[in-house]
Amino acid sequence: MAPLRVVDSVDSTHDRLLDDLRRGAALPGDALLALQQTAGHGRRGRPWRGGRGDTLMLSVVVGPVDPRTAPSLSPVAALAVLDLVTEMVGAERCRWKWPNDVLIDERKVAGLLLALGAAKQLRESPVNTWCAVVSLGLNRRPPGGSWPDDLRPGAVSLFEALGDGGQAPEPCEELGRRFLAKLEQRVEAWRGGVHLPTLLEPYMRIGRRVAVEQGTKRRTGQVAGLDELGRLLLKSGSEILRISAGDVFEL
After folding, report:
1. What pLDDT was estimated at residue 53?
2. Distance between CA atoms of 16 and 59, rounded to whole angstroms?
3. What is the CATH architecture of 4-197?
4. Is the fold of 4-197 the same as that of 205-250?
5. Which is the most buried residue in 31, 124, 227, 248, by most CB within 10 A?
6. What is the pLDDT of residues 23-59, one digit of tens each?
7. Position 124 pLDDT exceeds 80
8. SS (H, E, C) the chain
9. How much of the chain, in percent, has pLDDT values that exceed 90?
């Protein structure tokens, strides 16, 4: 990984790094951390709130990647987040909610976002022109000291999870460097053919009944696990469906 670049403020680390990649101003390993974002967002453009020192807001270029297997980078990044968080609060309190959320005590502490972009500097091969921008939003403490009413029931921060008697989480810059180191290790294992279901299914609620919404389509069933490409396995009646994208709601 290249040295972590830290900026005071940016509209969105994800959008900025993706734009840099497409313009030829970013390479694999480049990482950008903002102390503050003015237009941070998660999947489907949903806003991600966080102030200075409250939220780790970081994006990194991973590549080159094959677009056919790149979606499985999202669970790979989730493993890196779990590696970081479980060191602080223990694995038994943590869960992965497919496709992009990491939970502590059933409340969201982190979200991931992934997008593909063509890197100008990697034009030698049609496959190797592609890189992924992986972005992380990790709640270090509640924004401004307390959660807004609409987020309070489902969100948690590291400060809250560690409790009054726990050690305060590190500053965002140090958390970011630790995450990048763990992501590098997980990406290397992924390139070597690691079996993702074995690593992630212990953090999933296998058997839980859920609804998956994909645009106007809604499917219901039981979580049956994960396949090698990071797709959700959904048992619906006698079928096992492989879900590549969608929003999951527990029933």
Report:
1. 86
2. 9
3. 2-Layer Sandwich (3.30)
4. no
5. 31
6. 888 889 999 999 998 876 555 556 665 677 899 999 9
7. no
8. CCCEEEECCECCHHHHHHHHHHHCCCCCCCEEEECCECCCECHHHCECCCCCCCEEEEEEEECCCCCCCHHHHHHHHHHHHHHHHHHHHCHHHEEEECCCEEEECCEEEEEEEEEEEECCCCCCCCCCCEEEEEEEEEECCCHHHCCCCCCCCCECCHHHHHCCCCCCCCCHHHHHHHHHHHHHHHHHHHHCCCCHHHHHHHHCCCCCEEEEEECCEEEEEEEEEECCCCCEEEEECCEEEEECCCEEEEC
9. 73
Give the whole-angstrom CA distance, residue 178 versus residue 106.
23
- All structural domains of the chain with their residue ranges: 4-197, 205-250
